[in-house]
Amino acid sequence: MAPTQQALAGAATSQPPHFVLVPLAAHGHLIPMVDLARLLASRGARVSLLTTPLNARRLRDGGVTDKAARAKLLLEVVELPYSPADYGLPPDCQNADMIADNAQMLPFFLALRELAGPFEAYVRALVPRPSCIISDWCNSWTAGVATYLGIPRLFFQGPSCFFSLCDLNAAAHGLHERIAAAEDREPHVVPSMSVSVKVGNGRPHGFFTSPGCKELRHDAVAAMRTSQGVVINTFLDLEEKSVACYEAALGKPVWTLGPFCLHTRDGDDMASRGGNKSGVSERAIVTWLDKQAPESVVYVSFGSVARKLPKQQFEIGHGLEHCCRPFLWVVKESELASPEARMWLESLEARTSGRGLVVRGWAPQLVVLSHRSVAGFVTHCGWNSVLESIAHGVPVLTWPHFADQFLNEQLAVDVLGVGLRIGVTAPVMILNDDAAAPVLRGDIARAVSELMQGGEEAEERRRKAKEYGAKARKAMEKGGNSYERLTQLIESFRHGGGKDNEHCSGVIA
Ligand code: UDP
């Protein structure tokens, strides 16, 4: 039997369609894929989520598998053997949050490519073949075996559709290469965007765009070509124009199924997302939030990867102290390595006791954003954070760092009108690179006050955020666009329909 026929035979049985999900080993990609796994399983599909041993352990410890079993969902977490040591990395460097310095970034991605072998062995052993593979855009190493065995494969784009379209258009016009070759110092306007978008040197414009990553990018783009479509964590009412343009440019279906974070209202589910431990219990955080006035608290967090040096931390701390508003600030343990940083933070906590809460480590972000006392979010503009904020009707103060984040900022501020810029224009490398150009305490205090105050512009941001929040909830309810798209996706692959969607007339460079 030809490989494609084999796959279709598997999919055509009375068994539920089987989705194999392969997230990138980084919270910003893993968390939404786990949400997607739950969404698919809660609608009757069988789901296997494949990841490295450390992430599998975190997911199990976070209760993902136990909860799925209790709810009788067909959701399993599968460990793929992984040896980062072959690339000079410590054995536990299995998630982007375990990367110690910027020099480990490229080896981390190269090491992940070695998962191709275990992945192929896993897929080949499955009888019947899975109905569909959904793998992160960065995991191009899933494409070969899917194509060979004729298993339909979708790629998952972690960032916004606005970013994805911009990246595709920039690639189609050779902008990434020109910028990497430093041919032009001036920023380039990306063609075919609904607003003026500029990318160039000194302005980060996506993933794998630095010169050392040329091969990774090449492979990822090649894997897009052989896919049958893309899944994006967004919703139509938020990004309708970008979705239509992206679909046309890609020549493949764009499955907008989000916001995934709204898949549950269960407090325990929301708190355990990401499976990381916090220095403060979820209960203590909620108790503190309960004591604050409605819509008074600013939440400050820079995602799972970006790490700040003490100099910048001090500015943030003093800025929050000076703006005289209740704040909940997440500081990573890795940012508190020095005794000076720890002592400084303790004294800030003493001075702002009652008005401020510092969470060391990991915060239950959805619990915070869904609390009625939270009215603003200072964010690094990772797409999950922006979308989670919008989904809960909370406007954002944008402080992008790298990769897609400057474009997510532009979407939030210029297109959606739910954000205010703190004013950074230069990127910082992922880890500990913000010493050169710190954002100063006065600017932070002013921007936070502007976000949180009354006045026409601030009210308008709040109104729009709430409006999008309501639309987000509607999209995820029965009859809503994301809900119905998920139904179509499952039904499409139940009948091996992934093949029907295969048309590649787009402009993938
Ligand atoms: N997150 C969290 N608690 C934290 C930090 C992050 O729950 O203390 C979650 C957050 O809700 C989001 C993800 O981690 O789902 C971060 O993804 P994002 O795209 O915002 O940024 P990244 O970490 O990829 O830079």
TrEMBL record:
PROSITE patterns: UDPGT. It is an enzyme of class 2 (transferase). CDD domains: GT1_Gtf-like. It comes from the Eukaryota. Its EC number is 2.4.1.-. InterPro entries: UDP_glucos_trans, UDP_glycos_trans_CS. One of its GO terms (molecular function) is UDP-glucosyltransferase activity. Keywords: Glycosyltransferase, Transferase. The keyword Glycosyltransferase applies. Belongs to the UDP-glycosyltransferase family. This is Glycosyltransferase. The gene is LOC123134067.
